[in-house]
Amino acid sequence: MNDALIFERSIKGRVGYSIPRSTVPHAPIPTKFCRETSIDFPEVSELDVVRHYTKLSQKNYGVDQGFYPLGSCTMKYNPKINEEVAKMAAFTQIHPLQNPESVQGALHIYDEMDKALSTLTGLAHFSFNGIAGAHGELIGLMVMKEYHLKRNDAKRNKVIVPVSAHGTNPASCTLCGFEVVQVATNEHGCVDMEALKSVLNDEIAGIMLTNPNTLGLFERDICEISRLMHENGSLMYYDGANLNALLGHVRPSDMGFDIMHINLHKTFSTPHGGGGPGSGPVGVRADLADYLPNPQIKKVGGAYQWFDNPKSIGRVSGFYGNFLVILRAYAYILSLGKENMRQVSLLSVLNANYVKESLKPWYKLPIQDLCMHEVVFDGLISEKATTLEVAKRLLDYGYHPPTIYFPLLFHQSLMIEPTETESKETLDQFIEVMKVIAMEAESDPELLKNAPHHTIVRRLDEVTAARNPILTIKDIPHE
Ligand SMILES: Cc1ncc(COP(=O)(O)O)c(C=O)c1O
Fold first, then answer.
1. What tens digit of pLDDT does each residue of 161-201 get?
2. How far apart are CA 196 and CA 189, in angstroms?
3. Is 164 in the pocket of ligand 1 (CB under 6 A)?
């Protein structure tokens, strides 16, 4: 009973709230809007609810509990000062439909963030309407499409995406009506220049790249790629998911990028959330700014205003993005300042290389070069266990596993991104555990095959879970 679901605790008539007596006249809801049957809510006390949610939270795992080396996700610590700012009533109690005169402070923050991100990236303007990294990709590609259409160049309906790209890149291209043209990766894990040249023609609208790429490697030919693309009349799109590695050192505009998105929930320390709320601001060079989504913000006679730009690609979300997420990122930028911002990338690169060098006697390192903020191994050198088994065994030691089987370039990809916020002691403990697992794989491979052994939920049947998902609490089978 102690672990009973909240529905099982329900006792008819039990309540956990009291509503003050109404001081306004009773206004009946029209019958057509009323439910015919009551919702089957659990009837429980406040204490039942508090215990229920506290227990659920303890079964969860987050960056506040332990190391979270999920590659490509930049699971850095989210400083609590961000939360303090985001819960201030002055910000939580405003509404997007309020008159702009009454929310000048909030609009000022959008403006300040626009300036801060423009300084860090070298692009001219940012729109904050995007509510995820992938949403930012779609918006950026819509801007790219609009640019070519306005130049009467509608035949440009293809976008180049390297094979190492994150899955959202080709997905966003397809969603935007572009055809995806894949380019291969060379032996250094970077774009194969000959392959790139062979696909360039007057149908190519642009290229989507992340730099460092998903192998955590810096695309050394980036300036040449940019020259070739621009010479071909195509645009350069920067997937900002890996911006953490370059922050304060290299600006995407200096590498020749024209359009980009930033994942505030990665580089700028806002929570990743359970699928949201996220934020994917989109930055563009000056001549593309008109195409950014509506509403846009402008300052007229010292006051900020919303406005619908007739040249824009239009609306992409309900209002103007997830304001409280943008606010958290603003707090992060101000609390770090310019110099510490540079430290972010230095330390994230140092930490990833420390993990790389420490683990390479045990884990296959297909590309030996200096990595940036993350490192990709290709499973155990001994091959005595798979990457999946290593990841499951890590759960027994209390760690969130790294990203596995991505990027798709290797059969046993194991992608570790330690981030700058972890101490050397934490990294050493993790490295030690990874070594112990490598030894266990040799001495007792069965231990890994059946892992995890100590978690609340054991090895899941992932195929059945995908085919027959249990989506409501009531469908959970009772043992
Ligand atoms: C390289 C890369 N691009 C794009 C995305 C998509 O970002 P989001 O999850 O915010 O939609 C991710 C997410 O992990 C990523 O790693």
1. 999 999 999 999 999 999 999 999 999 999 999 999 999 99
2. 14
3. no
Upper half-sphere CA count for residue 129 (Cβ side, 13 Å): 22
Rounded-to-integer distance, Cα 121 and Cα 346, Å: 17
Strands 413-416 and 179-183: unpaired
Give the number of other CB atoms < 10 A from CB of residue 54: 9
What number does CATH give the domain 342-466?
3.90.1150.10
* CA 260 to ligand 1 centroid distance, Å: 13
**Of the candidates 275, 278, 259, which has an alpha carbon nearest to the alpha carbon of residue 267?**
278
What are the structure tokens assigned to 124, written together? 């001219």
Q: Measured in whole angstroms, how far is the alpha carbon of residue 97 from the centre of its chain?
A: 28
- Report pLDDT for 274: 59
62 token code pair: 């987050």
H or E, element range at 180: strand 179-183
Pinpoint the residues of the chain covered by CATH 3.40.640.10.
Answer: 81-334
- Determine the residue of 68, 70, 72, 138 to mutate for testing ligand 1's pocket, defined as the one with the most ligand atoms within 8 A of the Cβ atom: 72
- Angle, helices 387-396 vs 424-443, to 10°: value is 120
Ligand 1 pocket, 241 CB below 6 A?
A: yes
CA gap 415, 74 in Å, rounded: 12
**Pairing relation of β-strands 179-183 and 158-162?**
parallel
- In the chain, ranges of CATH 3.90.1150.10 domains: 342-466
Cβ atoms of 243 and 374 closer than 8 Å: no
Determine if the pTM surpasses 0.70: yes
- Given a contact cutoff of 8 angstroms between Cβ atoms, the answer to whether 315 and 155 are in contact is no
- CA angle, corner 67, sides to 328 and 435, nearest 5? 155
What is 81-334's CATH number? Answer: 3.40.640.10
Which of 166, 173, 266 has most ligand 1 atoms within 8 Å of CB, for mutation? 166
Q: Which atom of ligand 1 is nearest to the CA of 214?
A: 1
Q: What is the pLDDT of residues 84-100, one digit of tens each?
A: 999 999 999 999 899 99
Rounded CA gap, 113 and 283, in Å?
Answer: 11
- Whole-number Cα distances in Å, 200 to 30, 297, 314: 62, 37, 30
The per-residue pLDDT for range 253-300, each reduced to its tens digit, is 999 999 999 999 999 999 987 555 789 999 999 999 999 999 999 999
The answer to whether 227 and 200 have CB atoms below 8 angstroms apart is no
CB 240 within 8 A of CB 134: no
